[in-house]
Amino acid sequence: MRGGAIRVFAGNGDPELSQRISESIGVPLGKLVVSRFPDGEIRVKILENVRGRDAFVIQPTVPNPNENIMELLLLIDALKRASAWRVTAVVPCYAYARQDRKDLPRVPISAKLVANLLTAAGTDRLLTIDLHAGQIQGFFDIPVDNLNAFPVFREYIKEVHLENAIIVSPDVGAMKLASLFSTKLGLPLATVDKRRVGEYEVEATTVIGDVKGKKVILVDDIVSTAGTLTEAARILKEHGAGEIWAFVVHGILVSPAVERIKKSAIERLVITDSVRNPVDDSSELKITRLSVAGLLGEAIMRIHRDESVSSLFS
Q: What is the 3-state secondary structure (H, E, C) of the chain?
């Protein structure tokens, strides 16, 4: 541990998650003020000495990414100008991650732009969970710890009873994450072939793999409108699948996601609290939320002590 004492600060992205992380590591949240000038500009002030300290800033950037990213940038800049030894941005869900390439003419690579902004603000390290595309780590010239949420889901998945189960990716984009679950759980793997037919609509066309009579564990990194998940569940049922359980890391759940889930063939959607949203655990809504606070807290302490983060998943 080359730096000074640890300091943990939290923006307004998700005060409840920040508090859970703080409690999990026994380090109180640092004092700061985030306010507004009359014209709406964000004003940040750190209220304690951070000179030579190892500072961590917890700031989920989803939802309200534009507001939360700007606040995060200002917090990082304030800490660097106050002579913090190192500043690590703790971003459970990385905003703009789905805009990671030029898939159309004359569009930005927004995930790269966000990386540039974080680096320019003075970020020394990024801690996040399940980037939508692992290649986004290459947008940074600073260390990136891209955790995966499998340890958070592991115990819950065991409760689902895995007899005659199969891991399914709802599209090709989620195959890497689904493959990880398949390897860790020792279960076969299948995927759904998906076609996007509009900005908010998708159509599943076929299933690659044998799901007939099997319990399906549907795995993805992000659920936003739930079009991909619910369409995948529909075609899986058409191919003879049994119960369908969906495990998704980042539950953004914008309208009409909740209604789609309620009406779908999905038995239960299990998400984490990496994204702040008003949806509570509910039998009626078929949604369960698990916390990533312990996972992030352990990673924070390992980074602070210069210990291996990857060994968390060994």
A: CCCCCEEEEECCCCHHHHHHHHHHHCCCECCEEEEECCCCCEEEEECCCCCCCEEEEECCCCCCHHHHHHHHHHHHHHHHHCCCCEEEEEECCCCCCCCCCCCCCCCCCHHHHHHHHHHHHCCCEEEEECCCCHHHHHHCCCCEEEECCHHHHHHHHHHCCCCCEEEEECCHHHHHHHHHHHHHHCCCEEEEEEEECCCCCEEEEEEECCCCCCEEEEEEEEECCCHHHHHHHHHHHHCCCCCEEEEEEEECCCCCHHHHHHHCCCCEEEEECCCCCCCCCECCCCEEEECCHHHHHHHHHHHHCCCCCHHHHC
Peptide bond before 60: cis, by omega within 30 degrees of 0?
no
Calpha distance 10→75 (Å, rounded): 9
Tens digit of each residue's pLDDT (9 = 90 or more) over 21-79: 999 999 999 999 999 999 999 999 999 999 999 999 999 999 999 999 999 999 999 99
Using pLDDT thresholds of 50, 70 and 90, give the confidence band for residue 279.
confident
Which are the catalytic amino acids? Answer: 194
Fold (CATH) for 6-148+294-313: Rossmann fold (3.40.50)
Architecture of domain 150-290: 3-Layer(aba) Sandwich (3.40)
